[in-house]
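Practice problem 4.
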């Protein structure tokens, strides 16, 4: 019995989690996982059948592509039918070997260990008067129940596989060498670069104000220093002149008495600017909002 095959590699699809699970592209075409892995590039696949683009394949992982569940169900049913290879001829009765055990005792309270029975068992043996069913029909009932259990179990398995893929996707997002992690790190770097830029701009503004204040104060102090140095020179000359006068004898001092007058000096005592301290620098308070931009 032939199973559906991949249109790219012509190998039969796998109904398990192997490398030939049928995966559906956005264009609705289906390829096996193996071919999808060879076609994916830059998180996208160009369908070789129609050239349609399937994008947003996380980390180039084709396991994130949707499985073709309809095709998987069809293959499961096909496999159940193909696996039913058995000899359906009734065995010989263990008690009456000359007969075939064509029936099964279905009496609920039957205590016999062997439930298979032949016509002789039905009429004269331990199953006399017991309700019976055809072996083939009862076997088919059991096979149907087993098939339902298999399908139910496989559905549960599919749920677990889907859940596992989701967990692995989350796991990959936290890997330090993964694209998601690098993207978050880049966002953090940009955030703090923005903070540093705001702080640098505020610092330069304060330093410029300090330079302006220093330049203004320096010009004023330089002028005061120049004035005081000039006045000191003038006063030194006057003191020297008076000291020379003291070298004269009294007789001459008497004659020069009229010239002994206070110097007509205009004393210029101007209060200088206060010394520079940390209090002269106005440091701004910077508040960061949620976007990382600053307010002063």
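Answer key:
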């Amino acid at each position: 019995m032939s199973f559906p095959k991949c249109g790219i590699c012509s190998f039969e699809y796998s109904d398990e989690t192997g490398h030939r699970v049928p995966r559906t592209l956005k264009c609705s075409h289906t390829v096996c996982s193996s071919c999808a892995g060879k076609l994916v590039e830059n998180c996208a696949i160009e369908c070789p059948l129609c050239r349609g683009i399937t994008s947003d394949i996380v980390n180039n992982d084709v396991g994130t592509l949707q499985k073709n569940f309809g095709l998987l169900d069809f293959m499961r049913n096909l496999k159940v039918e193909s696996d039913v290879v058995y000899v359906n001829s009734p065995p010989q009765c263990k008690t009456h070997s000359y007969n075939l055990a064509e029936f099964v005792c279905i009496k609920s309270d039957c205590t016999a260990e062997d439930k298979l029975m032949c016509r002789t068992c039905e009429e004269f043996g331990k199953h006399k008067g017991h309700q019976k069913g055809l072996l083939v029909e009862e076997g088919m009932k059991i096979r149907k129940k087993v098939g339902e259990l298999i399908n139910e179990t496989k559905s549960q398995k599919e749920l677990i596989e889907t859940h596992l893929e989701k967990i692995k996707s989350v796991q990959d997002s936290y890997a330090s060498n993964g694209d998601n992690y690098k993207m978050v790190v880049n966002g953090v770097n940009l955030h703090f670069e923005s903070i540093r830029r705001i702080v640098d701009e505020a610092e330069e503004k304060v330093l410029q104000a300090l330079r302006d204040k220093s330049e203004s104060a320096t010009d004023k102090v330089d002028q005061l220093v120049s004035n005081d140095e000039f006045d000191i020179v003038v006063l030194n000359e006057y003191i020297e002149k008076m000291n020379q006068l003291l070298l004269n004898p009294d007789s001459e001092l008497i004659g020069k008495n009229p010239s002994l007058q206070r110097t007509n000096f205009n004393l210029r005592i101007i209060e200088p600017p206060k010394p520079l301290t940390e209090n002269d620098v106005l440091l701004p308070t910077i508040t960061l909002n949620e976007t990382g931009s600053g307010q002063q």
